[in-house]
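Appendix C reproduces, verbatim, an entry submitted by the partner laboratory led by Prof. M.T., so that reviewers can inspect both the input and the predicted structure.
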Amino acid sequence: MNLSATGEMLAQRDAFGDALIELIDRDPRVYVLDGDLANSTKADKVSRERPDRFLEMGIAEQNMMGVAAGMATCGLVPWLSSFACFIVNRDLDQVRVVVAQPNLPVRLCGAYSGLLTGKTGKTHQEVADLSVMRAMPNMTVLAPADAVEVRACMLVANDLPGPVYVRMTRDPEPVIFPADYEFALGRAFAVREGTDVALISTGAQTPRCLAAADELAHEGISALVLHVPTLKPLDADAIVAAAEQTGRVVTAEDHTIIGGLGGAVAEVLGERRPTPMRRVGIRDVFGESAPNEDLLQKYGLTPRHVAQAARVLLS
């Protein structure tokens, strides 16, 4: 598979709202619970079009989690809508005790993840959510690359037996997957073949890694791009295979380098196939309010930064 940006720009949150309506129409168990952010997460599409399946819980995330747990014990499938900074942190004790420990089918949707949150600044930028959720027993952790993959992973997540965290971004981003793309839980796969270096990425950083691979190709460097949409369960075999094929690994994520994709890949390779690697990500700092391109530049997440990390390994 060799994917490239299609030229279409879509917001993951718009796909989220549309997919919720699709799930409601398919499955009578599905309800949407919102933490007073529906107009931002686009769960308001449900409140307008399927109001009988939409519950506004207000600015009370701990209570929302408890309600969702109760609904799940009655055979329902609640989908929770909020910003990642709130649904991961403000109600973390409730996630742990009433959802993850009893292994209930609650779907946590963290919108506005990463640095690019519409100039909301450090209070609303959640860059450690993958670290937190990866460490939570029973939790499945998903980070789709584009709007097409958002819908595809939600269709699969709806039928999983335990809790699921889905990480989503705010603004329109390049679409890389075809409309008929089918999501496979727990599978990482090469969206660009290559032999000299492996760029391993997740979420919305994958289109930037494809752009980095294009930049490297102009210099005669063949970069494999391995997309990891499922952070947990992790496709360790695909990571090891990419390392064996190229001998060099760069991880890239709009997330702290501590405990996220970079940490996960380092854990796998450290145990199974030690490999020279570099981690591209947020380096143990909080963000700030600024335009998207300025944030990507300052915190080193652009295609140019990914390509430069590859050049360092190759040198």
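The longest helix spans residues 12-26. Additional entries are available on request from the coordinating office.
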